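WARN retry 2 of 3 for item q-0093 after timeout on previous attempt; input resubmitted unchanged.
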Amino acid sequence: MPVYQYVARNSGGKTISGSTQAVNQSAVVKHLREQGLTPTSIQIGGTDTFKPKYPRGKGGRPRLEDAVITSRQMATMIRAGLPLIEVLDILADQSEKVSMKKILREIEKDVESGASFTEGIQKHPTLFDNFFSSMVRAGEASGMLDSILDQVASYLEKVLSIRRKVKMAVMYPATVSVVAICITIFLLVKVVPVFEMIFADLGSQLPLPTRITLFLSKALQNNLGKVIVVVIIVVMLLRHWGKTKGGRYKIDYVKLRLPVFGAIFLKVAIAKFTRTLGTLIKAGVNILYALEITAKTSGNLVIEEAIIKTRTSIQGGESLTRPLMESGCFPPMVTRMIDVGERTGALESMLSKIADFYEDQVDTAISGLTSLIEPLLIVFLGIVVGFIVISMFLPMFKMVEAISSKK
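OK item q-0093 returned
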């Protein structure tokens, strides 16, 4: 076994150095902590391999993917019998992102000082939201933190999967549309003016499509700067309006009623609602608190208000099903399955089945949408570009005919 040189501090803050044989670096850390020592440096072969207080790594802020990896790895190590402080130490040491290292080190420090793991992660809501902290609290209370963290990881993986699919469904047509607009602007601003100079010498009246294209070209050339400024102002105003509660509510309302995309957004919202609520109930979280967390993580203000009204109704003694039906946001199949789950005592299982069904529906809808949108966008781009090209060549065809008739 390799020999490791270490420097550590005892409980009194005194620096202690020495050497020990171990299978790997983690074993050295465990050995030192069992002796009540906090390692500050561990070296093998003259190379410092452990500098937890001065981490280096990649930049960038933590993302949901980091929370998935962290919870999955943490569950594995806790199940293997490693103490929580050591688990946090190992995760911080192997994390590639500096921001993740910093967060994990801060949580480790809080736990070492006597705080619970829940209290530690609640200080970092940008990475560990209410859902995560509530699940961890339930895991700590039940002594099943490893199982709960596995559930959290599985839940977050499903959320990430749906998020990626929706993003792909929205980004593809948006990207193609932007490309089509840029090509059209280029043709009208750079290509059409060249033909306009040629047509100026013809003297005869130009065909209607040509006149329309030339008019659009001149209008765009004279007002391109103004158009860009107006677009930027409109986008900024919409973003500012969307941050207000009233604006966000109206935007979310419109999202759910958009043709084609509205059905996808609704299915995503239902899948997330049922998956979140089912996961929280399975972890033993109180139904009222679970609904509060589910509302905050729904991602749509219309759905959030429906869930909050449902929570208020339950506090008044009503069942879960009736207020969901009255909200008008949830299809009859969803409310009836939840009703059956309530009456049979299998609500958690029923919510999981609904989530699985709607996640499959989202997959199918996005696949069909992608297959449909691709040819439609190609046809649209072909019509726009084709109209411009044909309108530019029509006068030339007339000129060729005139020349041929004179001969």
